[in-house]
Amino acid sequence: MRVGRIRYINCYPVYGAIDRGVVDLGAPVVSGNPSELNRLMAAGQLEVSVISAVEYARESARYLLLPDLAITSDGPVRSVMLFSRVPAGELDGRRVLLTRSSMTSVALTRLLFEHVWKAAPELAAGDAEMTDVARFAEEPHDARLVIGDAALLLSNRLRGGDAAHTASPDYPYVYDLGACWKEWTGLPFVFAVWVAQRTAVVAEALQVHARLLESRDWGLSHLDVLAEQASAVTGVARRICLEYFAGLDYRLSYDHLAGLSEFFRRIAAAGIVPAAPLSFLPAA
Q: What is the distance between the alpha carbons of residues 176 and 81, in angstroms, rounded to a whole number?
């Protein structure tokens, strides 16, 4: 078994115990951004991985969901942010740069522009994720979607270390897409899910799943330790990292499934993906 993990700090609570040898996963781990892991799974180079929710919808015939394991938020997510020079509703015809690293964030952005912000901007793929604010001007834009550690770091820099309350003169309008979805639908949002190849040996996939859950439970009881590590890696204040981890949920409860189903319904209606059933890894 080869197991994929997102290289951003948002996976620390799931893999922290594995990294420290507290839990033996019993399989090699491959790191990448969400889009890279999507490609590795599609190529059959991983048997189990976390992938973008949209990738599951696109390829549901290939994959089985691992129960009770996902990256979700019930409100602000803090690491999927649209930085804009003008209000989102005034971006009609203006250039918006999208990340190449997350299909789910891009699909959610498209829905929000159409149904919430009522604007039709020029959407373009930006270069690789930037953490240097000064380099933003290298690609002309009026708004930019940034995800992962880069979003946390930029929020921290642009807003003087207080990502919740202080505006930036360069980007006075900052939208947290998790909060926007919650306000729009009243539901949690599922950004990523763990899946197994349908061709994987069920007993082996179940064993990996059990160890991932064990590691997650350890991580959720040691968020202070993980926040310290995340701060050292990203340069974001430990307090912000701890708030970030505490604001995420790594379960896949009925409420999360309702949010995931609603997102899939809306992106299927928009023609982004085919209608996708939710199929889970069966018990041995």
A: 5
Which segment of 94-98, 103-107, 136-140, 156-160 scores lowest on mean pLDDT?
A: 156-160
pLDDT at 99 over 80: yes
Q: Domain 80-185 classified CATH 3.40.190.10? A: yes
Q: What is the mean pLDDT of residues 213-228?
A: 98
Looking at residue 237, what DSSP letter applies? -
Question: The tokens of 20 are what?
Answer: 């420290």
**pTM of structure:** 0.92
**Parts of the chain belonging to CATH 3.40.190.10:** 3-71+191-269, 80-185
Contact at 8 Å (CB) between 205 and 281?
Answer: yes
Q: Is the pLDDT of residue 216 over 90?
A: yes
Which CATH class name applies to 3-71+191-269? alpha beta
Whether the Cβ atoms of residue 171 and residue 129 lie closer than 8 Å to each other: no
